[in-house]
Predict the structure.
Amino acid sequence: MKRKRVFLFLFLAMVVLMGFIFARGGYEKPVIEIAILLDTSGSMEGLIEQAKTQLWKIVNQMALAKKNGKIPRLKVGLYEYGKSTIPASEGHLRMIVPLSDDLDRISEELFKLRTNGGNEYCGKVIQAANDGLQWSKNHNDYKVIFIAGNEPFTQGDVDYKDACKTAISKGIIVNTIFCGQYKQGIRTFWKHGADLADGKYMNIDQNQKIVHIAAPQDHKIIELGKELNKTYIAYGKAGSKKKERQERQDSNALSMSEEVMVQRSVAKSSSQYSNTSWDVVDAVKKGKLKVGEMKEEDLPEEMKKMDKKERKKYVEEMQKKRETIQKKINKLNNERGKYVREKQKQLSGEQTLDEVLVKAIKEQAAKKEYKFEKK
């Protein structure tokens, strides 16, 4: 009888312990969720240019994050607000992309953005992000809103104080980025909004031109980034279109500057760039797909001619080739980083969007026990 009681006690203790671990997210992959709310009224062309230019640099910084030894899953959501072509009944705002790990889609939508004068309702767009996005329920995950603009924070029929308080009650930090003079942002309540939601108030010059530093490794990294695309095997109905999107975003990045394409190539070599929904290699690697169980109609043309053994071997070869290219890119990027840091010591200027985003994320995520490797 005593043995049964001891066994029962140990069993119950184990159940309680397991429940505690799961409640703490111990066996779950940690998540970083970032919602970016961009003012797309007439004066914000520079802000959009910075966002397009610096997306991959921000992703590369997130690729250095770990929590309890695990690499977090990065999800990004995108809203625009302040555009007169969006009806007033909709608050002159819209969700462009819900929280997603499809980074090519985020890039594609950023390149589609156009400005148009309108009314900027900060409280309303924050509330829309609070309610419209599927935020993680785990209080240990890092969840954050970044809102950027240049009009008073008080505009609109939703009180920014209520919206910011609602956000932090859900564990969502609100960081505010005023596009203009620091003191003007304080006077127009951008700092107060951040203070209410445990956030950080920052200001940038949205028209500041990003300084791109050319490095000896750039050309080789770009060439390797293009080679990576050849290792992707599109499957399913949407596969070919998403592979075309991947190639378009390479072109978009290169149209901005070589450094943007370098940053994108490095991002494609990181764990944050994953395309399980359309790429056979990623889907197999993440356990989302088994080559031997693929339907004939989902197979790409080159795999339809193969038997099951040949298909498996082909996917394995593409995976090995991809990993080899990624290692080369990361090695070159480490060398590039040393070169660029030396050059940056000679430069100074106003803060830009990527600088304030990365700095705030690192500081706030550290409080959630996320650590960032130094490279």
